[in-house]
Amino acid sequence: xxxxxxxxxxxxxxxxxxxxxxxxxxxxxxxxxxxxxxxxxxxxxxxxxxxxxxxxxxxxxxxxxxxxxxxxxxxxxxxxxxxxxxxxxxxxxxxxxxxxxxxxxxxxxxxxxxxxxxxxxxxxxxxxxxxxxxxxxxxxxxxxxxxxxxxxxxxxxxxxxxxxxxxxxxxxxxxxxxxxxxxxxxxxxxxxxxxxxxxxxxxxxxxxxxxxxxxxxxxxxxxxxxxxxxxxxxxxxxxxxxxxxxxxxxxxxxxxxxxxxxxxxxxxxxxxxxxxxxxxxxxxxxxxxxxxxxxxxxxx
Length: 300
Prior knowledge:
alpha+beta
């Protein structure tokens, strides 16, 4: 029986290892037509245009839109090249990801320079909230994974955190990432999750006495945004966290209303200088996910 279990595990791991090359062969597009040449050119422009500010660290957040969901560009197989190209072109030190299916795990791991925090739990456990980082720039010293105590999907709704050291300077900082419930379905759940998350942020800041950068899809917009989603969650989080959109010295966005519509945010806790905040809301990127990638350059 033990030998059979080992054989099944080996077969499963082998299947995961070849999965990206197999699935990418499926090129049927269910919804929005993806112009791969246009996205490739735009990713190159992103790499040229958004140079990091001095010795800052670059932190990003991005909801990949789980494979198999038929919105926008359809299955992940149609979007894989563009998403991996975009993630790599941003040249971030750390990225908080949401909706990381096992399929997305294999593609990001195999086609970008990033490493995953807690890769076995992310891949084999199928936990869909993840942190990736560039090991040439930063080193992961410690990390953890915390289930949200309320909510129906323990794989999707989690808290992931890591303590990093900048390789060149030796400075340390934390990144904590999550994906909260939709506040329009049951606001009591999302508010409870936000409170738990805020407590986790505070505990990290106190434990390590270093800046904490907060990333995630919070399914919440700022007060005054025209939305069916409550701003209570955003208000709760922003009580003790600074939204980098507002604290950044420079902001770059295509439309002034992009941030108002955004459910994704990057906050900071502790001493940090936010040099630039960017949302990549160019129209072609809409075919890659139902969320835009956001990043910020932070001086620690």
